[in-house]
Amino acid sequence: MPTARTPNHNVSLGAEEINCLVYNYLMDSGFEHAAFVLRAESPLGASPFAKAYVKRGLLVELLAKALLYTEVEAHWKDGAAFPVTCKAPFSLLKKHVCSSVAKQRPNGATGDAPPSRQDPPPVLNGVNGTHEAPKRKASQQQIPEDRSGKRARVDADLPPPQAKPPAATAKPAPIVVPAPAPAAAVVTVNGKEHLTQTPIPPKPTPPKQPVFRQLRGHQGVVYCSSWNLAEPRTFATGSQDGTIRIWDVPPHSDQPVTCLRTLKEDPAPAPADAVTTGEEPKHDIICLDFNRYGTLIAGGSFDHYLRVWKKDGTLGFSHKNHTAPIFNVKFSPSGLFLLTASLDGTAAIFDVRAKKLVREYQYHEGSCLDIDWFDEDTFVSCGSDHKINVFTRVSTVPFRIYRGHDEDVSQVKFCANRKLMASCSDDRTARVWSTRDFKSAASAESVAILRGHEDSVTSLNWIPTRDGKDQTIIATASFDDTARLWDAVTGNCLHVIRGHAHKCYTATFSPDGLYLSTGGGDSTVRITSVKTGKLLFQHKFERSEGAVYDVSWRRTPEGEIRMAACIDSTVALFDVLKLQLPPS
User: Where along the chain is composition biased (Low complexity) (predicted)?
Assistant: First the structure.
């Protein structure tokens, strides 16, 4: 929008100021999503008014002043007194009809009322379009007959007045409003600025910046993603099509994201005595994990195989120890061992260098759903038998068992300092456990029980360490369409994150712990303030009917923050800083 200027007044009005006023009005009115859409799609964030203080209700105050000016403009009649009897309202969108004028119309006449005979308005150049013909004639009789000049010439051009009955009132001539003059432009000639009435050409509308980059290539639903710990611009995705794709994200958002390589092993031939069902075997990649050096990536598959790939895309080794789909894989802190969890009820440890199975832990009655390392020698597993088992690498018998959940335990995770452990379950709760006597055989009691969800709690995450300080906040996602933020020590629910129209599958924190992202079965990804619990951003993938199963974050050395959301057979990569999220 160009800046409008008048030749006689130092007045300017620009799109940036208007956007700033509208943005603050929307925020004051509670339309936060609309406000942030405006901020994202306009150059407001880069304008000098982005951080300007705007008092509450300023836009309404300015519009009220505009109405007062409209009143003056409507009632001003060349210096005549204002009609104090006007009771007609003024509106920003409707034309004002003065009630005092309507009352002065005699005998049902229409149009503007004529001025009073006792106080005739001044005549300009002998022509007054608002006068009755008899009044114009009276004013002409006051002019000497021998007077020459502009006044006489104008009067001579007028038609002779027509006599009218005294009781009749002439309809006034319509008032012609001149067209507004074109906006003035400043032109520099020989070093001097001059005003010209040449219309200012409008500024070209900048192209709308995409909210995210969509990465295509997978031929099936993308279930999981994992960022390389050593190379922050590299991440991997696993899909229903049985492939792992490694993506390279350039430092600048205007550069394309490239797929470095696609990892896929030809499926092993079925045994000769295998029973055929007529269905093709499934090879979905369900889980991924990079080692700490970023040189290896492990993937667990629906076809029961564990596969470990090298950085150059060659297969390090594959192993089919499990007899059911592998639900999770995790490298040990040193990267020397690899831990797996399978629906066959077992956990297993593999020696990465030797490329072989070290030990199998079959102690769950049903499925083993998740695992996590406590340190290099100790790990936990949880399952459909409602228990959390604690093992060492050298023993297949758990030396400690955590009990308390009444249904399947879906996930278990340690906080950053390993002092607390959290678990979530289909019993609609999450629990926090102390690890103070973790390696003893003493009975374990939960520190806090997190109650409030109305359906299965399917995933949880701990908030990252911030500024070297440990934090005790947990995020949970549930099939009740919500996510929740909890104080892990007191068990208090800090915020309930509503808005998803279908099951909430994932809730993950940003690297700085300021924001929480959620993805659900409604094809929507949402970002919420951890501090206030308010929605800051959401995007609905309109052309999708799938779910957002996984969202992962990564901060680059340059300070960029990337967020990858798995939706259908694609990955939506958001440059979070460009979303212009407010400080939390």
Answer: 165-174
